[in-house]
Amino acid sequence: LLLGCELTASTKSYTFQVDEEDDSDHILALSVVCLTDGAKDECNVVEVVGRNHENQEIAVPVANLKLSCQPLLSLDNFKLQPPVTFRLAAGSGPVHLTGWHRIIHREDASLEDDDLSEEDEEELPPIKPAKK
């Protein structure tokens, strides 16, 4: 599934979350962060707000965009675990974020594990020494 949202002076944050009762694994990957029409030549800082392994909220800046020098940043599918909030920490935007959301159903994951175990059982030919 594709993800897209826009952060502006009036909409400074966007939260992506999934149903807690959902038994699937979710991967959210951020691909591109860019300034769009109407952006001023000012620093626009986008940060990701999530939770660490101790369940404490942490905010990490992922992009600092300025129209005259860096209007676009590719994040190469930066993977995140929902719930996650994207926040415009500085600037007035508009900043557009794009990415994708992958849902892995638990039964699909168990089938993948079965496929891997069958491959592991497959016998490999012995390694022969190189000829001199």
TrEMBL record:
Region (Disordered): 109-132
Compartments (UniProt record): Nucleus, Nucleolus
SUPFAM superfamilies per UniProt: Nucleoplasmin-like core domain
Acetylation in keyword set: yes
Keywords of the record: Acetylation, Chaperone, Methylation, Nucleus, Phosphoprotein
GO biological process: chromatin remodeling
Keyword Acetylation: yes
Molecular function (Gene Ontology), one example: chromatin binding
A Gene Ontology cellular-component term: nucleoplasm
Biased composition (Acidic residues): 110-124
Domain Nucleoplasmin core span(s) in chain numbering: 3-102
InterPro entries xref list: Nucleoplasmin, Nucleoplasmin_core_dom, Nucleoplasmin_core_dom_sf
Annotated transmembrane regions: none
One Pfam family cited in the UniProt record for this chain: Nucleoplasmin
Subunit record text: Interacts with NPM (via N-terminus). Forms a pentamer with NPM at a ratio 4:1 (NPM3/NPM). Two pentamers form a decamer.
Function: Plays a role in the regulation of diverse cellular processes such as ribosome biogenesis, chromatin remodeling or protein chaperoning. Modulates the histone chaperone function and the RNA-binding activity of nucleolar phosphoprotein B23/NPM. Efficiently mediates chromatin remodeling when included in a pentamer containing NPM3 and NPM.
Protein family membership: Belongs to the nucleoplasmin family.
Protein name, as recorded: Nucleoplasmin-3
Source organism (scientific name): Illadopsis cleaveri (blackcap illadopsis)
